[in-house]
Amino acid sequence: MDKFIITGGKKLSGTIEVSGAKNAILPIMAAALLAKGKSRLINVPYLNDIKMMAHVLRVIGARVDFTDNIMEIDATHANYCEAPYELVSKMRASIYVMGPLIARFGQARVSFPGGCAIGTRPVDLHLKAMEALNANIETDHGYIIANCKKLKGAEIRFEKVSVGATCNALMTAVTAKGETNIYNAAMEPDIGSLVDFLNLMGADIKGKGTSHLIINGVNKLNPAEMEMMPDRIEAGTFVIAGAITGSEITVTNCIPEHIRSLLNKMEEAGCKFEISEKSVKVLPVNKIKAVDMITNPYPDFPTDLQAQYLALMTLAEGSCTIEDTIFPDRFMHVAELNRLDADISMNKNVATVKGVKSLSGAEVMATDLRASATLVLAGLAAKGTTTISRIYHIDRGYERIEEKLNKIGAEIKRVRG
Ligand code: UD1
Questions:
Q1: What is the mean pLDDT of the chain?
Q2: Ligand 1 atom 35: the closest Cα is on which residue?
Q3: Which of 207, 243, 354, 404 has CA atoms 20 to 30 A from the CA of 310?
Q4: Residue whose CA is closest, atom 38 of ligand 1?
């Protein structure tokens, strides 16, 4: 297993570019199954999660070519309606093939994803939405088995905001007969991106960017071509990298509006930015003060940036609380940050962070995707050397992170294991 060895305390300077948005691309890749023919996705990063989804599509019978950050998915001969345990257990987002498989073939057999390092993550909302659309759902030996003769438009009211369930409901409803109304839909930009792609394929979806999506079922979808939007979580991570090292850096190829909640919170903490249409320049400041934060669905503060923001707060002046309402157990990074001399205590899903003067390098372990990014951020700011093991987590969601950060002055060495 690869490790990162980080020599901390270096100032960063220059421009760092954001790659395509993993969480937008994964459902779009699944959506390509809805049409016979070749879809083309541009600006797709080389990430393990994306390669894993390509693998899932190939198992289903699609042809996937991936070169120069362009992915072509030809789903003409897709015919195997299953996502097996070996794949779904490695990547929960494999559940995204369920909607398209029911919509195109009237059947799907997908393994239950189970829990993961950030806690139990049920899929009941996905299943309820599909049942509302007239699919028959059964479970058998750890598998979800869906069958349907004819999908029918329906009224879906999510009792909780779910990104994944909204995506699956959309992909199931696009060819259902009649009108579907999804209420309390997730409003994350990733959903907007899926709506754009489905509409390019010939779907009729209105309400993009709102919590009420209206879908008029169409008979058939065609393949489509689209450029993938930039990754807001990667952008946010880089903005925090600038702030935590007291550096001046410019994060480019991003959509600042998508990280508005983070920028607002950081401005409250005393950070300074120059924001333009597609970039955020982080300006060095003398001190950052501690500011409380609570995660909530978009447009509020994203759970996917909770860990990184927490790293920044370890060095802030004063103390603050950080609460995760989406994934209450998502605090595996706390024990690791404390190994770097941070002062964080936990009470249920609330972390109390007392700012310290400095962090000091140590050996730590990455436990999940965003927690690993946090350890990189803390390692950049810490005095001395930080060694992070199990960095395969970071390769799931950050494209060449060490190369990108080294280009602007970081010192991160990947040691192949
Ligand atoms: C997606 C993102 C993940 C992000 C999360 C929340 C992808 C591939 N992953 O995950 O990075 O952290 O959104 O922004 O895009 N829930 C249920 N029942 C369900 C589904 C969800 O109770 O059927 C709960 C979850 O346990 C959680 C909340 O709803 O508490 C939100 O989860 P959801 O938005 O579905 O997360 P994912 O789509 O899995």
A1: 97
A2: 162
A3: 404
A4: 164
* Ligand 1, atom nearest to 128 Cα: 23
Identical fold for domains 3-19+230-415 and 22-227, yes or no, is yes
The reply to whether ligand 1 has any atom less than 6 angstroms from the CB of 23 is yes
Counting as low any pLDDT under 70, the low residues of the chain are: 115-116
Scored b (16 or more CB within 10 A) or e, 75-91 reads: beebeebbbebebbeeb
Secondary structure (DSSP) of 256-274: GGGGHHHHHHHHHTT-EEE
Span from the CA of 129 to the centroid of ligand 1 (angstroms): 15
Per-residue burial over 135-154, b = 16 or more CB atoms within 10 Å of its CB, e = otherwise: bebeeeeebbbbebeebbbb
Q: Is 125 helix (H, G, I), strand (E, B) or coil?
A: helix
Q: Is 113 exposed, middle or buried (0-12, 13-18, 19+ CB in 10 A)?
A: buried
Residue 115 has a pLDDT of 63
Determine the atom of ligand 1 nearest the C-alpha atom of 49.
8
C-alpha–C-alpha distance, residues 100 and 126, integer Å: 13
CA geometry: angle 365, 11, 317, nearest 5 deg = 75
Domain boundaries, the chain: 3-19+230-415, 22-227
Catalytic residue chosen out of the listed positions 116, 167, 271, 320: 116
The amino acid at residue 10 is K
The answer, yes or no, to whether any atom of ligand 1 lies below 6 A from the CB of 164, is yes
Q: What is the per-residue pLDDT for 417?
A: 86
110 touches 84 (CB < 8 A)? no
Provide the whole-model pTM.
Answer: 0.98
Q: Do residues 310 and 353 make contact, with C-beta atoms less than 8 angstroms apart?
A: yes
106 conformational bin, left if phi > 0, alpha if psi -120 to 50, beta if neither: left
Q: Which atom of ligand 1 is nearest to the CA of 26?
A: 8
CATH class, domain 22-227, is: alpha beta
Token code pair at residue 192: 């907007």
Q: What percent of the chain has pLDDT over 90?
A: 97
Minimum CA distance residue for ligand 1 atom 8: 23
Does the beta carbon of 126 sit less than 6 angstroms from any atom of ligand 1?
yes
Grouping H, G, I as helix, E, B as strand and the rest as coil, residue 152 is strand
Nearest to 175 by CA among 134, 229, 115: 134
Q: How remote is the CA of residue 79 from the centroid of ligand 1, in Å?
A: 28
116 in catalytic set: yes
